[in-house]
Amino acid sequence: MKDVGEQLAEQLKKRNWTKNYQQLIRDAFEDKEVRAFIRNNQTELTQEDIAKSASKVYEFVSVKNKIKRGEETLAPGYDPQLTLNNHLIDVTYVPSEALMVQKKRQAVHNRVRSINMPKNIRDAELADYDLEGRELAAEAAGRFIEEYTSSPKKFHRAMYLQGSFGVGKTYLLGAIANGLAEEGVASTLLHFPSFAVEMKNSIGNNGTMKMVDEVKRTPVLMLDDIGADQLSSWIRDDILGVILQYRMQEELPTFFSSNLDMVQLEKQYLTTNNRGEAEPLKAKRIMERIRFLAEEFRIVGRNRRQFKK
Ligand code: ADP
Ligand code: MG
């Protein structure tokens, strides 16, 4: 077989293309991948076909080189690929490996729904978790992910993380949510005090009940910082109570984090409403659901926030 470049030059002369363009096309046909492609498909391609495909070959090589030089292309994240299309050479664009990795990461992130949560927990990982003072909790978290993902239909008791401000409770919830997401499990992480304010501000609005409905049905729910606000009877009984009742009935895993331990949560948070009225029986009912859903873990350690800028 004659050299592809030479043969092409002959064809191009016939077509009266400008010198400059001819040179660019000739260079494109010198590309290793192009030569290999033509060699592998020589039974399908006549010289005329190859000449007609010149602009596609040129497109392929110029986009490929742009990517190599790190320049932006018309379809960022997609690599050009030579294909045969009805006896002509064509270029198709396939997602690059980097794009596939990014898409996968995005899909994992999308499985974690965060409502009023700090941004930095997006990347929280159990593997990065400093274990000091929280060995049991970290171990239980790993076990939960394993057991839940291997039998998601069975009931798995989740965790109630108790500890003072800044010890890493929220971080651990985020790490569990991300760990589950890696395994394809969707979860909702929700900062309970802000959620309660939003609910109050939208009483009577259709959105309220829709939101409660979505939250209560999520496969794995995490209520962060419960006990940090002043509770109204309405939030306790019609929002929190409704969510927990459903989750208990349906045996859906529900995590909690709080500065208060379970006993304090019942006595200091759930019993007295924001008007100062004591409703111990109602507090007890909520507490029973929390205990059914989650096992208490105490997390100790320094306040990590002091060391952050
Ligand atoms: P809490 O919810 O208990 O108040 P956070 O989870 O918000 O505490 O943690 C406080 C800060 O310390 C956050 O910036 C968090 O990213 C960081 N942090 C917490 N735990 C860890 C950990 N085990 N390893 C690394 N950083 C952590
Ligand atoms: Mg927190």
UniProtKB/TrEMBL annotation:
Domain Chromosomal replication initiator protein DnaA ATPAse intervals: 149-228
Any Gene Ontology biological process: DNA replication
Every Primosomal DnaI N-terminal domain range: 1-93
One Pfam family named in its UniProt record: DnaI_N
NCBIfam families per UniProt: PRK08939.1
Protein name from the UniProt record: Primosomal protein DnaI
Species of origin: Liquorilactobacillus uvarum DSM 19971
